[in-house]
Design brief:
64 residues; mainly alpha
Length: 64
């Protein structure tokens, strides 16, 4: 379900939606990862931006 564009601010910035292509694309570009992988991580970890980004950071560290 898409975000309510009228509800913005900190609570909205703390969440990320796997159903919003621009949100997935932003995180994918930020972490230099494919959008499909980022979408799977969001679905696995939930909508918390902090959890998703921490997971992606750990994943990238383990690859090196």
């Amino acid at each position: 379900m898409p975000d309510d564009k009228k509800k913005t601010g900190k609570p909205d910035r703390d969440l990320v939606s796997a159903n919003e292509p621009y949100e997935v694309a932003y995180i994918a570009k930020k972490h230099e990862l494919p959008s499909t992988l980022v979408k799977k991580v969001i679905e696995q970890e939930g909508p918390s931006r902090k959890k998703v980004e921490n997971y992606l950071d750990q994943m990238k560290k383990n690859r090196k």
